[in-house]
Specification:
single chain; PGBD-like_sf; alpha+beta; Peptidoglycan-binding protein; Muramoyl-pentapeptide Carboxypeptidase, domain 1; 2 domains; 10 helices
Length: 272
């Protein structure tokens, strides 16, 4: 794979316990918070402050109890692997598929099932956490709207299973605009006006890009993957969105979008 930042996110080099400090402690705290989605009845959410204090220790003990392990309050490399298991499952499992398009859909569904999501500290500190860093080549923070990072990670994971690179059809980027403009130059970008006339131009596995039609210059502001096409409707899996379909949300969601009502272009992955 080209996008390999995920490898650092699933590993811990040393044991952490009460009194430990630093970024590795924050990584533990991040995974405790993310695992709160897997275990909604267990108190796991804690502050991301890089300080392994009594609250973090209690959350660790609660996680150990939830997965039926002895309650030590210490995070060994083995326990960290259990904390980060959703990411390892999403990135390392290779679903059987007969072609790249089917692989794209199955891998995207896998990331969706693992509840891929970002973390927030406050309104100014968003787009954080191991999933975001994995999708965005180690980067995180408010400027990094990670929808394209998610799309390219899935394409990378699927293509690499066939010994190919997603960069043969698009640049390695985190920008919707760069992705769309490259599609225009290569002839891969299917304009919304053409799509509205012939929905067969969009196929499962392709990338959609939402475009703002306001102003003199096109502005693409959100991207995702198409999982099915039926009439005027696309079913999608997309990152950095929310239940309302926003372009700077919190997680990976499956959605339904009507391309007759939205200015939505399609980037074809044919030949990947």
């Amino acid at each position: 794979m080209i996008k390999t930042a995920f490898r650092k996110e699933a590993q811990l080099a040393t044991t952490l316990q009460q009194g430990s400090k630093g970024f590795d402690v924050q990584r533990v705290q991040e995974w405790l918070c993310l695992n709160a989605q897997r275990f909604p009845n267990v108190a796991l959410n804690t502050t991301l402050d890089k300080d392994f204090g009594p609250a973090t220790e209690r959350a660790v003990r609660n996680f150990e109890r939830a997965i039926k392990r002895p309650q030590t309050g210490r995070v060994t490399p083995d326990l960290f692997a259990a904390l980060s298991e959703p990411l390892s499952t999403a990135f390392q499992t290779e679903p059987a598929a007969s072609d790249v398009r089917k692989a794209v859909i199955r891998i995207a569904q896998m990331h969706l099932r693992q509840r891929s999501a970002e973390l927030h500290v406050n309104e100014e500190q968003t787009n954080l956490g191991p999933w975001v860093r994995s999708y965005c080549d180690g980067l995180e923070g408010k400027p990094f709207k990670w929808c394209v990072g998610f799309v390219q990670t899935i394409l990378d994971q699927a293509a690499s299973g066939f010994g190919r690179a997603f960069t043969v059809i698009m640049p390695h980027t985190l920008s919707c605009d760069q992705l769309a403009l490259s599609g225009q130059q290569s002839g891969r970008l299917i304009d919304n006006a053409k799509l509205r006339k012939d929905s067969r131009l969009a196929r499962p596995g392709d990338v959609f890009l939402l475009r703002s039609s306001a102003g003199p210059v096109n502005d693409w502001f959100h991207a995702g993957l198409i999982t099915s096409v039926s009439g005027d409707v696309l079913e999608t899996i997309e990152g950095n969105t929310d239940s309302k379909g926003g372009s700077n949300g919190t997680a990976v969601f499956a959605r339904v979008r009507n391309f007759q009502k939205a200015t939505l272009d399609v980037f074809s992955i044919e030949g990947l």
